[in-house]
Amino acid sequence: MKKSKQLLALSLAAIMTAGMLTGCGKAEKPAQTQQEATVQSQEETTAKEETKEETLAETSKEREITDMAGRTMTVPAEIKSVFSAGPAAAIYLYTLVPDRLLGWNYELNEVEKSVILEQYHNIPNFGMGDAVNYEAVIAAGPTIALNVGTINEKMVSDCDALAKSLGIPVVAVDGDLMAAPEAYRFMGELFGEEEAAEKLAAYAEKTFQDIENMNIPEEEKVRIYYGNGEDSLETAPASSPHAQIIEMVKGINVAELEMGEGGRIQISAEQLLAWDPDVIIVNGEPKADITGASAAESILENPDYASLKAVKEEAVYGTPNAPFSWIDRPNGPNRIVGIRWLSGLIYPEYLNFNVDEEVKEFFQLFYHVDLTEEELNRIYQGMQKDDPS
User: Fold this and answer.
1) Could you count the other beta carbons within 10 Å of the beta carbon of residue 142?
2) What are phi and psi of 134, to 5 degrees?
3) What CA–CA distance (Å, rounded) separates 283 from 126?
4) DSSP letters of 273-322?
5) In this predicted structure, what is the pLDDT of residue 49?
């Protein structure tokens, strides 16, 4: 009996010893895990603080830029919305970053709406020139404003004055048509849309190069009259930016006159008869709802012009104006497609490209729409979607 009690005591002691050893082993592991957890927690806290600092820094980050007028300024890192100081600026914004266009500078007409995406039909109209609604612009809170035009002292002065009025940076962009590739690349960097901007810049460069490659003999160069207004007797002289693409496509502008204020001058019917151009291009008058096509028809039907060479040969053409004029008004990137159209009109035998295909590509890249053959023909003829064929 005594021996049995001794054996039981020894067994219990062994069990307790084993339990103590097991317990000690378990105690060391939690101590190590706690230390690791503390380190991990500190690392996570540090990472969160760094992320927060980076987020705050990114939110408040600004950058210094030099615009195309050579003006250095500070702009926010993220540009969410832009006020266009004029129609040309609005078109540049619509073609590259439509979602950042704060508003138009006038109410869109039905021709413009026939091409422009529907979600941009009813964005605000802030006006332009002396009619800008500054209170409405400020209330809308644009990040910056964009001014497109001829780079000169007046342009710089206008930008500075607008910046003072709005309290935001006003960025100047060169509006010369030949500067379009540079303008798109500059805006691509400004808005962080380099890839999209490069596509537009490359298309413009290819257009210029295709025209440059056309070797037109001097004796075959076409003499062109370009008319505006309700009677088509407002013209843009050879030195005017409003007639820039005539010379770009190697045509001859018959209006060898001194440029008046604003780049256009009024002439008489007798002056047009005296010039007797090979081709007449007319823009119509958007303010009077006169399309280029209807203006061309008026000239062809006017007996006073029956003796004109262009009328006899039915070489009177209305400028396509959907969504904006392809020649002028405004002097924006909308004119790039006009180079394709006009060169095909006057020098079809010298082309190294298909005009229709190039026009379709332009509309896809710049206006974000895919034209059908029917839509393209309607645009050529100056008709809207609901016009009778």
Assistant:
1) 22
2) -60, -35
3) 25
4) HHH--SEEEE--BGGGTB-HHHHHHHHHH-GGGTT-HHHHTT-EEEPP-S
5) 66
Alpha carbon 167 to its chain centroid, in Å, reads 24
On whether residue 352 sits in a domain, the answer given is: yes
Tokens representing 173 are 């962009």
Residue type, 3: K
Is-contact 170 199, C-beta < 8 A? no
In sequence order, the 6+-apart residues with CB closer than 8 A to the CB of 41 are: none
Task: Give how many domains the chain has, as a whole number.
Answer: 2
User: CA–CA separation, 289 vs 23, rounded Å?
Assistant: 95
Per-residue model confidence as pLDDT tens digits over 168-196: 999 999 999 999 999 999 999 999 999 99
Say what the pTM is.
0.82
Dihedral of CA atoms 327, 328, 331, 337 in degrees, nearest 10, equals -20
Residues, the chain, total? 389
Print the SS3 string covering 73-128: EEEECCCCCEEECCHHHHHHHHHHCHHHECCECCCCCHHHHCCCCHHHCCCCECCC
Out of 192, 227, 251, a domain closes at: 192
Is residue 215 domain-shared with residue 187, that is, in the same domain? Answer: no
Are 289 and 327 contacting, i.e. CB atoms less than 8 angstroms apart? no
215-227 pLDDT, tens digit each:
999 999 999 999 9
Residues 6+ apart with CB under 8 A from 2: none
Domain that includes residue 240, residue range = 211-380
Is residue 172 included in any domain, yes or no?
A: yes
The verdict on 311 and 184 lying in the same domain is: no
Both 129 and 229 in one domain: the answer is no
Same domain, 76 and 153: yes
